[in-house]
Amino acid sequence: MTTVDPEIATPPNAVGAECAEAGPAPGEAAARPARRRAAGDPVKTLLHRHRELCERAVDPLEIAAGLEAHGITDRTAARFRHRDVFSLAEELYARSSHEEVSAAARTVVPAGPAAFRGFGYALLPAALACAAAAAGQSWAGAAAAVAVAAALVWPGRAAGGRFPYAAHLLAAAVAGWAVHRHGTALAVGLALAVVPGHLAAVAFAAGARARLDGSRALEEFADRVRPLLVGVVALFTAAAAGAAVLAGTPLPVAVPLALLFLLTRLLLRHGAHRAPVGAALALALVPSPAAVLAAAAGLLVHAVLALSRASAHARP
User: Fold this and answer.
1) Count of alpha carbons within 13 Å of 16, Cβ hemisphere only?
2) What does the pLDDT read at residue 113?
3) What is the DSSP string of 17-66?
4) Does residue 287 sit in helix, strand or coil?
């Protein structure tokens, strides 16, 4: 039987006591506080992940819109110890470095030379269509159709900032096909509706931005912007009907077509996905009286859903 010298043997509890007194290894000691700090500051990880968004934002609302575009909802914000995305965005904005932003960059309603140029561009199709129709030119309808399609869906950026060439080509094809079937009077009616369409788009963008400023939750913003969209669409529909009456073209033909172009402009201007817009425009090419109405109705439903998101109103 082997004997053990009591002076050499060390009890197990003594080993643990010696380790406790010695403390953890240097690398382990550095790792534990780091993990503890990371767990105690969950916003720091989110700030690092979206650093470019936070540093380029004009205000916290830009960050809130960007977070929503990345799939972060009010429920997700609760995991970061915030009641909603807007509160989370305010902390991210406060903890980010920013360049000085002029007061003009914060202006909601566009003003200055750019706004006047946009209004002038909106007047061109009506002037071209009316002048060519009055002169009895054979190319009046085709020229007006192209001008209307370009004015009503321009500018556009679609999802991811890509330029929606296909949507513009489809819009021109829809306008040209409709004018070919129903005559130059339809082109004049659509051209007269370009100015109300431009004003409706500007009013909706400004109104939605103002509602974004006053909202404290994504659901609250959606509830506030949907009536605005419906109101803008209703006012434009009335204006398009008046333009059709002035041009002498049937209302069931001109109004749904003008509404389809307005919704296309709104969706593309606010960065919507191109697929639903292209599908609606392709449906409008079907030679059926109900095709354009169905396309406009479907695109209106999509617009109510897409344009009620805060990310659709972030500054491009």
Assistant:
1) 3
2) 65
3) HHHHHH-S-HHHHHHHHHHHHHHH-HHHHHHHHTHHHHHH-SSHHHHHHH
4) coil
* E-strand stretches of the chain: none
* Phi, psi torsion values for 230, nearest 5 degrees: -60, -40
314 and 62 Cβ atoms separated by less than 8 Å:
yes
Q: How many angstroms separate the CA atoms of 96 and 102, rounded? A: 18
Distance CA(84)–CA(72), nearest Å, equals 10
**Residue 278 or residue 87, greater confidence:** 278
Per-residue confidence (pLDDT) for residue 107, from 0 to 100: 45
CA–CA distance, 16 with 152 (Å, rounded to integer): 78
DSSP-derived 3-state class of residue 82: coil
- Is the bond leading into 155 cis (omega within 30 degrees of zero)? yes
Q: Which pLDDT score, from 0 to 100, does residue 56 have?
A: 80
pLDDT in tens, 212-250: 877 777 788 889 999 999 999 999 999 999 999 998 999
Tens of pLDDT, residue by residue over 269-286, are 888 888 899 999 999 999
Longest Cα–Cα distance in the chain? 123
Return the pLDDT at 38.
43
**C-alpha span between 181 and 142 (Å, rounded):** 11
Q: Which residues contact 255 (CB under 8 A, 6 or more apart)?
A: 237, 240, 241, 244
* CB-CB contact of 97 with 52 (8 Å): no
For residue 4, give the 3-state DSSP assignment. coil
Q: What's the sign of the alpha-carbon dihedral 53, 55, 56, 61?
A: positive
pLDDT band at 85 (very low <50, low <70, confident <90, very high): confident
Q: What is the CA radius of gyration of the chain?
A: 30
